[in-house]
Amino acid sequence: MNMPRNGSGSDQDKGAVWVAVQIVLLLLILFSAGQPALPGAGGRIEVIMGLLIGAAGLGIVVLSTTNLGSNLSIFPRPRDDASLIQTGLYGIVRHPIYLGVILSALGWSLLRGSLIALVITIGLFFFFDRKAHREEVWLMEKFPDYASYRGRVHKLIPWLY
To answer: Whose CA is closest to 102, among 128, 67, 77, 82?
Structure first.
């Protein structure tokens, strides 16, 4: 399957290292689930919360990718032909895909009752914060309106951060 590319330049120039680290963190979360267990793991509340949070996260990812349309890329550097999206979920939070992935990982960690997965999920939040910072440097270079958008819309957590 061919993934969307960002135009000219090497994958490394587009932020491939960020993508590789992200994949490693997600695989660690996926395969670390289970040991050691969170206190109260496997209880009805943890399972329900895990399912609800995980489903919300997946829904956010799907809706966000739909909002991006042809702007979607696996790389953090915007595509050469990209346009700045400020509507839909992008009107509420600047990086909704990252938010959705974090929520999905949190839901998985709770569902599986894994302390290790939860700790890595917290690390994933800080990773996405740094990745978003790097991505925004590129976005500000490409889109003159990005600074104004950045001033109006929070980065990763709607209405908070």
So the answer is: 128
For residues 66 and 132, give the distance between their C-alpha atoms in angstroms, rounded to a whole number.
Answer: 19
Q: How far is CA 156 from CA 63, 82, 84, 111, 129, in A?
A: 15, 21, 17, 23, 7
Cα distance between residue 116 and residue 32, in whole Å:
6
Provide the percentage of residues in the chain whose pLDDT is more than 70.
86
Give the distance from CA 57 to its chain's centroid: 9
Question: Which tens digit of pLDDT belongs to each residue from 15-71?
Answer: 999 999 999 999 999 998 666 666 666 678 888 999 999 999 999 999 999 999 999
Rounded to 5°, angle at Cα 23 from 18 and 29 = 125
Tokens of 85: 């999206």
All structural domains of the chain, each given as residue ranges with its CATH number in brackets, are: 51-161 (1.20.120.1630)
pTM across the whole model = 0.86
Q: What residues pair up with 151 in beta bridges, in sequence order? A: none
Distance, in Å, from the CA atom of 97 to the CA atom of 135, rounded to the nearest integer, reads: 13
Q: Which residues pair with 37 in a beta bridge?
A: 114
